[in-house]
Amino acid sequence: MAAPLFLLAPPRSYTSLMNAMLGQHPQAFGLPELCLFNVEILGQMWIRSSDEMGSDAKTRHGLLRAVAEIYAGEQTMHSVRMAEHWCAARQNHSVASVYQELVEKIDPLVAVEKSPAYTVDVKRMRAIYRAFPDARFLHLTRHPVGQCKSVMSLYDGTFALFVNSIEFQADRAVVEPQYAWHDFNINILNFLDSVPPDQHMRVRGEDMMSDPPEYLGRICRWLGLRHDADAIEQMMHPERSPFACFGPLDALFGNDPNFLSGPTFRPHKVKMPPLDKPVPWREDGAGLKPEVVALARELGY
Amino acid sequence: MSEPLDARQEGKRAKIGPIDGDPVSTHPDLDKLSPYQRGLREALLREFKARKVKKFVEKQVKYINGNRQVAEEIKILFDEHGQPPANAPMEDIIAERRHLEHQIKWFEAMLLELQTRLLRVREIEALALDVLEHSPEA
Predict the structure, then answer these.
(1) Who contacts A118 (Cβ-Cβ below 8 Å, separation ≥6)?
(2) Where are the domains of chain B?
(3) Which tens digits make up the pLDDT trace of A233-262?
(4) Residue A193: which of B10, B45, B51 has the nearest Cβ?
(5) From the CB of residue A207, how many other CB atoms can be counted at a distance below 10 Å?
(6) The complex's ipTM?
(7) What is the CATH number of domain A5-144+179-272?
(8) Residue pLDDT, tens place only, B35-61
(9) pTM score, two decimals?
(10) Nearest of A266, A255, A287 to residue A23 by alpha carbon
(11) Residue boundaries of the structural domains of chain A
(12) Chain B contacts of A166, Cβ < 8 Å?
């Protein structure tokens, strides 16, 4: 069974694009966000996890779309219904065994997945490693200002609020996404310390955006996959992935909605904002925390 | 072959977020927060939800107004018996046909969605009845 590749990064760190690009490699299979390791038993994905922040049904869409595509070869309302029955039949199975079953089904293709929710807690990443001791992990980074701005622009920063990335002031609390940027990257670094060095690699998303053939080639060499011109060319078309669009009515998502509505990739140079200036999402002129600046420097920003 | 899982130690870098615990759950660990901070957090969540509802209502109102506007505009296509007048312009008839086709597509999608939900509810109902039938009190 080919060892899967997991992309580890906080949300809004080019993960959707990178996942779809790597998944288009002729020897790989790019999955949508399965979010399987958010829980331990499959049935728990159908249990409401939060009363504070609305519905979490969207977290199941990726899994339903993946099962529909892998087993039925199409994503329609009928195949999604089949996928629901597939899941129901395995509701008491561990998510590790369900994931292994999917990976085995697409073998010899290398499964490529990213669910940013895995980085919320080291326990989730540890569970991945237990299920796949030979898995590879790609730590994808993004400049804290760019990532936080992007988080705040999506549904008023709902993700940051969802993970309690909050700053308390004298008379009010405000959403402050840099806590999540820092702590999720720290979770990844802490976890990767327990993984042999040849099983993980770090790439700056901004470098990938400006010179994709170079960095895709490096990743392929590390994974032991083909890195010829044809393979690179295929990876330059993430929009060809069967998951790079909205799914049927009862499983619409499974990925970042912005990516689903515009998955085409155009190489571009990303501007890196300074680390010592006020940040745009704060009305009080505050900047990045010293810990965030220190970690950003460590990650090469 | 990989090293055993416990062969390497996990890092111990410190986090800076003010709230511990599994954040995506009903039970974030709020012990570190004072009662006042918990109140502020509640207020922030309420404000966020209110903003979300406001946006949703604004969108719906726009949609309803849009439908009314369309209804007003096509009124001239029909006489008091609901029939198009004999001299209705061809363009208007085509536009009306397209409009109806579009609405039918939407209704078909809605119908499919409702059928799916009905199927699920029927399954749950059948299971519930089955459980009741086999319960010792039955």
Answers:
(1) A6, A8, A37, A38, A124, A125, A128
(2) 28-77, 87-138
(3) 999 999 999 999 999 888 989 998 889 988
(4) B10
(5) 15
(6) 0.79
(7) 3.40.50.300
(8) 888 888 888 888 888 888 888 777 777
(9) 0.79
(10) A255
(11) 5-144+179-272
(12) 18-19, 41, 44
